[in-house]
């Protein structure tokens, strides 16, 4: 019979493994970002094609969330995590062999489906393991993962041999080790009927969580639209606006965005969700404004400062939305609600950036950035206004009662 201390250590090690695995999937997703200009130079494709390569990843991820997002509620967590790891192993092999746009698209499609499957099941498994720390890890691990992937990839591209393969080989080894270890975890969900029905594309938002989701959605949309732009077009934008040719710039920008977001999450984790959402909307509006000024003044320093502020909005907006919604789900609803939350988030992640990539053909990258930024500033301010009205309404009701 295990002691409470043994049980605590077991939970802690399980939480650590799940967090690292989630971090690994998101790290892999941002690894191509610093390489995009190398792919463009080698394969001679446009910014619109670049956003297509980025966009198919997000669309494939959405397809996974819509079909297999709640699969682990019926089959159990371990087999679904294992299959997601196998798919990402295959994606790494495709990246290693990629010598055309078609190969890159195939690799991103495979990676997107694997990541979509992984984010919902790992998110649910983290909540199963620790109801208090699970939401925090779900918020921080993706941001830290994207930072590690982008910055690590940038360093390898700049200083290591095999700039377009080495990062994928390292991830391949990591995923193989995780696929072997996952079977040592205890299962937290018992199998139940309804597996085939769960594969029908659907968004399952429990009734008790719907109002909270719609209130948080405008900030969440702005947050993920910023993330999509940074992971697709930001490196090209910095090169165009400032003339910098360093391979570290693209990865550095993503790292600043996501690390500042992660630090904001850690510092705000004990604050009420509504206050965090309001802060996120405010920081996004200010940060994006600074980035637009940096673009027109060709200031790399101001670009990074604006990214730092925007990252604070990214982290606080994401945490506020997640904290507002996920605790409202019952245990058997967690994977389904996590899947629905990520579907809405990743629609905002890919569709605006795909549109921006196509607009660069006719408007150019700078003008497209201006329009993109203006829309996100307006969305952030509208969200902030709605949240302030909600706070005022609550205060009036409290006074009347």
From TrEMBL:
<dbReference type="InterPro" id="IPR011701">
    <property type="entry name" value="MFS"/>
</dbReference>
<feature type="transmembrane region" description="Helical">
    <location>
        <begin position="371"/>
        <end position="388"/>
    </location>
</feature>
<protein>
    <submittedName>
        <fullName>Mutlidrug resistance protein</fullName>
    </submittedName>
</protein>
<dbReference type="GO" id="GO:0005886">
    <property type="term" value="C:plasma membrane"/>
</dbReference>
<feature type="transmembrane region" description="Helical">
    <location>
        <begin position="337"/>
        <end position="359"/>
    </location>
</feature>
<dbReference type="Pfam" id="PF07690">
    <property type="entry name" value="MFS_1"/>
</dbReference>
<keyword id="KW-0472">Membrane</keyword>
<feature type="transmembrane region" description="Helical">
    <location>
        <begin position="248"/>
        <end position="269"/>
    </location>
</feature>
<dbReference type="InterPro" id="IPR036259">
    <property type="entry name" value="MFS_trans_sf"/>
</dbReference>
<feature type="transmembrane region" description="Helical">
    <location>
        <begin position="80"/>
        <end position="98"/>
    </location>
</feature>
<feature type="transmembrane region" description="Helical">
    <location>
        <begin position="166"/>
        <end position="183"/>
    </location>
</feature>
<feature type="transmembrane region" description="Helical">
    <location>
        <begin position="104"/>
        <end position="127"/>
    </location>
</feature>
<feature type="transmembrane region" description="Helical">
    <location>
        <begin position="212"/>
        <end position="236"/>
    </location>
</feature>
<feature type="transmembrane region" description="Helical">
    <location>
        <begin position="301"/>
        <end position="325"/>
    </location>
</feature>
<keyword id="KW-0813">Transport</keyword>
<keyword id="KW-1133">Transmembrane helix</keyword>
<keyword id="KW-0812">Transmembrane</keyword>
<feature type="domain" description="Major facilitator superfamily (MFS) profile">
    <location>
        <begin position="13"/>
        <end position="391"/>
    </location>
</feature>
<keyword id="KW-1003">Cell membrane</keyword>
<dbReference type="InterPro" id="IPR020846">
    <property type="entry name" value="MFS_dom"/>
</dbReference>
<feature type="transmembrane region" description="Helical">
    <location>
        <begin position="139"/>
        <end position="160"/>
    </location>
</feature>
<feature type="transmembrane region" description="Helical">
    <location>
        <begin position="276"/>
        <end position="295"/>
    </location>
</feature>
<dbReference type="InterPro" id="IPR050171">
    <property type="entry name" value="MFS_Transporters"/>
</dbReference>
<dbReference type="GO" id="GO:0022857">
    <property type="term" value="F:transmembrane transporter activity"/>
</dbReference>
<feature type="transmembrane region" description="Helical">
    <location>
        <begin position="46"/>
        <end position="68"/>
    </location>
</feature>
């Amino acid at each position: 019979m295990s002691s409470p201390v043994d049980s605590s250590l077991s939970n802690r090690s399980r939480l650590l493994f799940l967090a690292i695995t989630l971090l690994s999937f998101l790290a892999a997703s941002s690894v191509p970002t610093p390489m995009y200009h190398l792919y463009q130079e080698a394969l001679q494709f446009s910014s619109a094609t670049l956003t297509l390569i980025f966009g198919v990843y997000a669309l494939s991820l959405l397809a996974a969330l819509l079909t297999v997002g709640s699969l682990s509620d019926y089959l159990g967590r371990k087999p679904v995590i294992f299959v997601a790891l196998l798919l990402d192993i295959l994606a790494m092999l495709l990246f290693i062999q990629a010598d055309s746009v078609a190969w890159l698209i195939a690799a991103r499609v495979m990676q997107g489906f694997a990541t979509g499957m992984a984010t919902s099941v790992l998110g649910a498994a983290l909540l199963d393991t620790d109801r208090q720390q699970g939401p925090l890890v779900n918020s921080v691990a993706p941001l830290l993962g994207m930072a590690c992937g982008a910055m690590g990839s940038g360093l390898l591209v700049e200083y290591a041999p095999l700039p377009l393969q080495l990062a994928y080989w390292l991830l391949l080894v990591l995923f193989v080790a995780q696929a072997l270890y996952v079977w040592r975890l205890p299962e937290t969900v018992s199998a139940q009927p309804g597996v085939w029905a769960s594969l029908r594309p659907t968004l399952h938002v429990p009734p008790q969580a719907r109002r909270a989701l719609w209130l948080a959605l405008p900030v969440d949309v702005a947050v993920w639209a910023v993330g999509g732009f940074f992971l697709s077009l930001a490196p090209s934008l910095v090169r165009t606006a400032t003339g910098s040719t360093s391979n570290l710039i693209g990865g550095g920008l993503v790292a600043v965005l996501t690390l500042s977001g992660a630090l904001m999450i850690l510092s705000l984790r004990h604050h009420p969700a509504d206050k965090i959402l309001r802060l996120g909307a405010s920081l996004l509006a200010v940060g994006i404004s600074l980035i637009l000024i940096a673009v027109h003044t060709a200031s790399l320093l101001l670009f990074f400062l604006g990214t730092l502020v925007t990252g604070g909005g990214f982290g606080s907006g994401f945490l506020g939305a997640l904290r507002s919604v996920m605790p409202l789900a019952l245990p058997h609803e967690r994977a389904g609600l996590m899947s629905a939350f990520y579907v809405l988030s990743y629609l905002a992640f890919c569709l605006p950036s795909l549109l921006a990539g196509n607009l660069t053909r006719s408007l150019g990258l700078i003008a497209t950035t201006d329009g993109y930024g203006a829309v996100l500033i307006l969305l952030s301010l509208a969200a902030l206004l709605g949240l302030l009205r909600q706070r005022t309404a609550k205060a009036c009701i409290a006074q009347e009662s």
